[in-house]
Amino acid sequence: MMRTTPLRRTTLHFMQIFLTDALTFIDYSSRFLAHLIFTGHFAR
C-alpha cells in the first residue's frame, strides 16, 4: 500500500480542480463560438 503525503494529495486535488475548470471553459467557449457562427453573428 502506498502512502501519499499531504502536500502531494493537495497538489493532486488542485490539479483536478484546474483540469475540470479548463475543460468546462473550453466546452462553454466552443458552444458560444458555434452559436455565433450558426446565427451569423460571427461573419463580417
Provide an overview of this structure.
With 44 residues, the protein is mainly α. 77% of the residues lie in helices and 0% in strands. It is built from one helix and no strands.
Keywords, separated by commas or semicolons:
mainly alpha; 44 residues; rod-shaped
Helix residue percentage = over 70%
Total helical segments: 1
The run of helices and strands is H
- Large-scale geometry: rod-shaped
The chain-level structural class is mainly alpha
How large, in whole angstroms, is the Cα Rg? 18 Å
Q: Mind describing the biggest β-sheet?
A: none
Distance between the termini: 60 Å
Global mean pLDDT: 85
What is the β-strand count? 0
| Beta fraction | under 5%
Low confidence ranges: none
Task: Give the topology.
Elements: H1 6-39
Describe the structure concisely:
With 44 residues, this protein is mostly helical. Helix content is 77%, strand content 0%.
